[in-house]
Design brief:
This protein is an alpha+beta fold. Helix content is about 40%, strand content about 30%. The chain is built from four helices and five strands.
Length: about 160
């Protein structure tokens, strides 16, 4: 009759349950940090902070005072003309603000009137872009999906190893 002394050793070359959990947790932390970093980068690229500040502020009617056209290339290298309207509006305090809309797809001609959104402390950062759920919550959506993906893959990793 054999007598067991101490813990049973796992098969040679096979990681123990504790080391598998450490690997899964480290993977989860790194993947979550990457998802949050990607979400922040995307938010800055989409000008999220500027747009959220403008949308949380005031609105005004702006008149298009001119449209500048610039040539660019699309992803396939084909020439594309992009228009940049210059909009002018008056703030509630009476200050006249002129700005060039950064948004590419605003179909206006000189003389058209559009609604603009602006923050009281930064009216020069105004936008005519209409608030949307996706643009407002892009950072949270990307981070949430990335973290959920990290959790699922860490669980699968822990189960497979």
């Amino acid at each position: 009759m054999a007598v067991c002394r101490g813990p049973v050793a796992s098969a040679p070359g096979r990681p123990t349950r504790g080391s598998v959990m450490v690997i899964a947790v480290v993977y989860f932390v790194i993947a979550t940090a990457a998802a949050v970093s990607l979400a922040r980068s995307l938010d800055r690229q989409m000008e999220g902070p500027r747009l959220r500040a403008a949308w949380a502020g005031r609105t005004a009617e702006a008149r298009c005072t001119g449209v500048r056209a610039e040539e660019a290339q699309d992803a396939d290298g084909m020439p594309v003309t992009q228009t940049r309207p210059t909009l002018e509006f008056r703030t509630e305090s009476g200050r006249t603000v002129t700005f060039e809309e950064r948004r590419r797809r605003l179909d206006v001609v000189e003389g058209d009137v559009v609604t603009v959104y602006y923050a009281e402390d930064a009216p020069g950062d105004a936008t005519a872009q209409v608030p949307s759920f996706g643009t407002r919550r892009a950072r949270e959506l990307v981070a949430g999906v990335g973290c959920a993906f990290a959790l699922v893959t860490a669980a699968v990793l822990a189960d497979v190893l």
